[in-house]
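Subject: for your reference before the review

Hello V.,

The reviewers asked for a structural picture of the protein, and I figured it would be easier to keep everything in one thread rather than splitting it across files. Below is the amino acid sequence we used in the manuscript, unchanged from the supplementary table.
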Amino acid sequence: MNRPASRGGAPSRFVRGRGRGGGGYRPYFYFRRNGRVIPAGGNRQPGPEAAGPGADAAEARPPPARGWNRPASKRGRDTNLDCSFLRPENYAAPEDGLLVQSIAVDNPKACPGWRLYFLRDTYTADSDLAKRITAVEAHYQRNPQKYDFVRIREQGFFKLPALGIVHDEQLKQVWPQLTEDLREHPLRTMSTLAVAMHTVVLNHSLDTNETLATRLESTLEQYVPPPTRIRKIYVRPEDFTPVELTTGISHDRVDTLFSVRGIVSSVGEPTYSIAWQSFRCSRCQAEQAMRQRGTFQPRPYLCKQAQCVAKDNFVPLRSSPYTRIAAKQIVRLEESSLSLITDHDSILPGEMDVELRHDLVDCVHVGQEIVVNGVLKLRDLGKDVATGSGTSNEMKAYLKAASIQDAHRKLREFSERDLEAIAMINAEPNSFKLLVQSLAPEVHGHELPKAACLLSLLGGGDGGVNVLLVGDPGIGKSKILQSCAQSTERGSHVSGKRGARSAQRLGPTFAGRNKRVLQAGALMTASSRGHCILDDVDKLASKQAVLLQCMQSGEINMPLPGAFSTFLAQPSIIASANPQRGQYDEGRYLLQNIHIVPSLLKEFHLVYVLLDKPSAERDISLTAHVRALHAGAKKRAQIAARYAIKPKTSHSMCEGTFYEARADEDNSETDSIMEQDYDLDKRLELLGEDAELDLLPPILIKKFLAYARQHVNPLLSDAASRAIERFFMELRGGGVRAGAQEAEQSQIGSG
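And here is what came back from the structure prediction:
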């Protein structure tokens, strides 16, 4: 529409410039309808056709557009907008021009729920899409033991494992590229799979209702509700794509199916809004649905039927399946992968936002490890922070979740190269010594504390081992903890050097602008067979009560306004502490040297005191170790080809121990197991003949430990169990006798 010729006569609906009373920006020419501001096209000039056949082309060329209609507006409008009501059936806002705003419910008989899944397409009986839908329906009907149609109707979704549908030979003949289509075009493929299930569930419910109708009827005493229409059914595909890293996301992966594994680090508040509203024409009884956006709820102004001329009196239908309430929730996923080594001091682990909708809302909790399959999308980060105006070109990837699996039910996958390296490590004559020396190789000596940390990394869960390292500053405790944080399969790292800020990261907290985002702390992130690495735990005085509760009961309590919540947290703790006076005083007790409450110290199974004693032999060995590291003699490389796969005849820590214990038990039950030679520190010590020992990189240690935790389940023999029991009883008896002697001496001294 062009500007009216004159402003006299009847009042025009066009308004020029800003509206009366000022306010926000208005297009140069616009008109209002139902509270909307609609641009009218501006002051366009007639084209060459209107100028006449003899007019010059240069004279007929319109001047450059200005204002609202300029090619690149600062307000983000990159297209010239014409008047709306003459072109589309319903007005579409500029930012929603590519979306369908209203649909007519005209489902074909072959697909009763067609318009729930395909808003624009028209159903054609002989098309490839119709043949695929029929083939998928036949697959569902051939496998009633895999798909519970009654439960699918009640829940509104169903899980679709890849093994159940990919190997169907009859379906392959009609749809051979099912897996490729699901990966490259996930939305359309999932709609095809869902509309087929909708038809099968509808036919099954009709057969069931016909059977029940003959038996159940409404009476004065009992009311039997009539059968309702089936709502939209969502498909949840599983195991169609391998788990990938977020670092491998590229532009060609947008709008494709993507799978990522991680730990839920934060959960947002669910939001609910009406997405579609269905209306019925009071004249022809035709049904149509309109998309609802924002606070303004549009209503139909014209019936979708061509023969009907109704323009008002449309009745809203609340019970219609086309009236849908959209539930939405945003969670943040912290990536967990065996191929990633994270330096927690300088680099944060990879994170990705995941959008949950419909039945997936509130299906995860903080600290849970999950595998998310969804469609990869991009969103604009908003205005440029540096300039404060315009829109930034930075885009952030997020995932629209299609299915969520618990990671505990999905095993880790190892490549052939990983399995070969693991077999080479296991074929080493002293593999345990190799692993201990590869853990924090910068720290010379202290093999026994490093062995304890390695055994704690091999364990986890309910039977986890808590280790505490106490010693002088600069002895290498932080290096050992950093190496443990890099080698653990699932863990978190908190340093007490940052004071109160680190203490807040220990337990769950609320964050965000309105404090509506629940963040998982380090204890919950490392829960369930994970490890929480705490550096300088003595400086976390404000959170030692939370740590004590977690180690004692495996739970964390969090008071809320008017409520009280409890979170499960069962991590294994590997911590370090520094002496209060800067250097460990051997003349004082352990509790007098460190700032830790006695009840918390009792929860640690292994406590090691690392002292920096002056020793000429140790200093010479340390100097040679540092020179060898910088010279490259002890490089962090993979195991060389000389480690052939052969039967293991090792001199590791376990060889001969329980056989000797069994022989001692047979010979004499009174021999003390403490008198035997169990000098593990000397067995793990790096000797001169181990100069050519190729140390393992952290990523290989991480994969070896993950493989051992997943596939190895050791069992103790009866002789080994009795030997451990004897050892524990002797330790306990020695402690009781030592305490009695000390009490007796104190009484004599006081007397």
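For the response letter, the relevant points are probably these. The first strand starts at residue 15 and ends at 16. The longest helix spans residues 718-750.

Happy to draft the paragraph if you're swamped.

O.
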